[in-house]
Specification:
3 strands, 42% helix, 64 residues, elongated, alpha+beta, binds zinc ion, three-stranded antiparallel β-sheet
C-alpha cells in the first residue's frame, strides 16, 4: 500500500509541474522581449510549446 501511495503522489507532482509550465508560458506571453522591442508570443517551437519573440524569434521559454 505504501508503494502505491508514493507512486500516486509522484504522478500528482508531475501533473502539478505541467500546469506550472503552463502558468509560466502564460505569464511570459505578452511580455516584452529582453533582446529587442518585440513582444513574446506563444508558439510551437520544434513541436514543443514555447514562448518566442515575434520580432527576433528568440525563445524565452520552452517545454521539453
Ligand atoms: Zn526580440
Amino acid at each position: 500500500m505504501e508503494l502505491i501511495n508514493s507512486m500516486t503522489n509522484e504522478m500528482q507532482q508531475l501533473n502539478g509541474g505541467k500546469s506550472g509550465h503552463e502558468q509560466l508560458l502564460r505569464g511570459l506571453s505578452g511580455q516584452s522581449c529582453a533582446y529587442c522591442d518585440g513582444t513574446l508570443t506563444r508558439e510551437q517551437f520544434q513541436s514543443d510549446e514555447a514562448v518566442v519573440c515575434d520580432e527576433c524569434g528568440t525563445p524565452a521559454a520552452r517545454i521539453w
